[in-house]
Amino acid sequence: MVGISFIKSVGLKSKVLQKTVNLSLSVIIGASGLAAAIPFLFSQSAMAANTPSIVYDATSSSLPPNVASVGFQATSTSEFGDYVHLGGTDRALRTVTVTMSDWGLFSDYSSDVRYSGNNANWTYPLTLNVYSNHLGLNGAPDTLLATKTQTATIPWRPAADPTCSNPTAYRSTSDNNCYSGVAFNVTFNLASSNAMLPNDVIIGVAYNTQSYGAVPEGVPGPYNSLNVGAPNGQLASSGTDDNADNVFWNTSHAGFYADGGTAGVGIFREDTNWTPNGTAAFQITAAPATVPDSSGNATVDNTTPTVLIASSSQAVNITVADGTTNAGVDYSALKSTATQATIPQTTISSSAATVSIPATQVTASSPTWDGIVNAPTILANSSVSIGSDKTVATVIDVGAGDISLTFNNAVRLLIPGQAGKLAGFVRGGNFTAITTTCTTDSQSWADTNLPSGGDCYANAGSDLVIWTKHFTTFVTYTQTQQAAAATSTTKTNSYTVVSGDTMSEIAAKFGLTLAQLEALNPTAGHPAGNFSLILPGDVLSVGGAVVTASTSAAAQNSTPEQSTTPKVLGESNSPLSTTTKTSAAGLVTAKVTNNHTWYWWATTTAFVLVVLGGGSYYYILRKKA
């Protein structure tokens, strides 16, 4: 079917203009016809026990033989969709159904080995995208809430009927009218995405053709005759179309956009002048979502694992039932931008941990954040690598996976039964020890004393408390260290990196500042100069540093008692001078750079230096003269 025109009607005041572009393998917007047809639906997997409802519907209750539609190959299209307002209150996404039209004839591809074996239908992968209504650069939606690619079963259209006025059309047996395409439905099951929908969403359908799409096929095929439905004068029976004159469209042909491509070409963005075809044929179903009661309380379980928060002023208390997987709190309705939301005071209680979030602003590291904060989840100890000299006690993941979440105010994480352990966190596979001890277990102290993205930890009875201004994977652990016996000192010029080492820890180990170690090794790191990434086997210069080693020590797991730290008698922003060291009586504390703390004890027979840095303790004993 070559040389068919793509017609887009443009309404200007009382006049109706038609822009006609002669293209091959196209579609005419304006096909008519009613009555029953043959819907082709994908079987859906088992869904949650709560029954979903239709929250948006712009499909026909009785599928007609064909609908007006947009051909991707003919219009240089990669994605086509619409901006819609959802009805009802159900927001846990379940399915999206799209009405499409196929103009492909089996006779055109009967000799193609890809299709020759089935004269009833053919199969092809289609992608359904659900976006929030937040628009970024060039007016394109910048937050993907859910996506699903699945292989659709697509009917061949019937053979041409010579009695039709258009000799290439077929005659429908349902209404005896002639059509160029056959309508069918595709249902995408998105329940596994666990997506919670805001009230407004943008739906897009994407697939490849010979010349267009994310990965063009490069050869002819029936996909060149595949179209997405945009029926004439279609009205939504549930929910509403944001603007029946507008659609969202990604075409690489500037002239097809109403603005001539001024706002960008090849971008999935809003386009105007689509009346009467500005409502794409989509249906969306969603299941009930848990919402807080009038007192702000809610419980989530495997039936409804997500609680939807719609108010930034009501404090909420969320209980996660034992055994619940993928539990989360959905703040998408409170997002002011793609990366920020102002959220209410929230307490999440689970067997893994109790999280206390104050009313605050949360900022995500990526605009793809869907607004959901995952409830604390216990992961396997083997899921993290923190170094051979450390033993993992507990791993708890909280937040948004690989997307970093930071908070303007500190958040309290209480981990049961972990008192006396050390704490750290893992992000992107890299472990960082938390080296700051919380002086006071209070919101005001943590807000004031923790820097942006900072953390501290402290014991609270038999539990461990972490105050933090970011969410990630947190770890409690014990440190393997040497019990001091006889010691010896040697000088060394180099050090070979082992698993778990960081530049800060190595610097502390050899009595250097981080800046000194970096200056000694300007080409260290991967790539050179990236000191945050060093690998086992790397050799670093330590400039002839003195190394103190035990000659008869046995390795043991130990965790320093936080509550027995002696009274601080002195404080300095630089290492203690020789004079101070030799004249000190009792304990003197000096705070040095890179979050290392040096403790000196002076006794009648020796000085004892304890260095805390990067979660590791080092002991140096020196006999008094």
Structure in words:
The N and C termini lie far apart (101 Å). α3 (503-509) crosses α4. Helices cover 5% and strands 41% of the residues. It is elongated. It contains five helices and 40 strands. It has 625 residues and is mainly beta. The strands form eight sheets. Strands 18, 20, 22, 23, 24, 25, 28, 31 and 32 form a nine-stranded mixed sheet that branches. Strands 19, 21, 26, 27, 29, 30, 33 and 36 form an eight-stranded mixed sheet that branches. The protein folds into four domains: 5-287, no CATH class; 297-479, no CATH class; 485-558, LysM domain (Membrane-bound Lytic Murein Transglycosylase D, Chain A, Roll); 566-625, no CATH class. β1 (5-12) and β2 form a beta hairpin.
Core attributes:
about 625 residues; mainly beta; Membrane-bound Lytic Murein Transglycosylase D, Chain A; 4 domains; eight-stranded mixed β-sheet; 5 helices; about 5% helix; about 40% strand; elongated; disordered C terminus
Short description:
It is built from five helices and 40 strands. The chain is mainly β.
Q: Compute the separation of the termini in Å.
A: 101 Å
Largest sheet, strands/sense/barrel: 9 strands, mixed
Mean pLDDT: 80
Q: Give the number of helices.
A: 5
Mind telling me the C-alpha Rg?
Answer: 32 Å
**Helix/strand/pairing category:** mainly beta
**Principal-axis shape:** elongated
The tally of strands reads 40
Give the total of domains. Answer: 4
What amount of the residues lies in strands?
35-45%
Please estimate the helix content. under 10%
Unreliably modeled segments:
1-49, 550-598, 601-608, 611-625
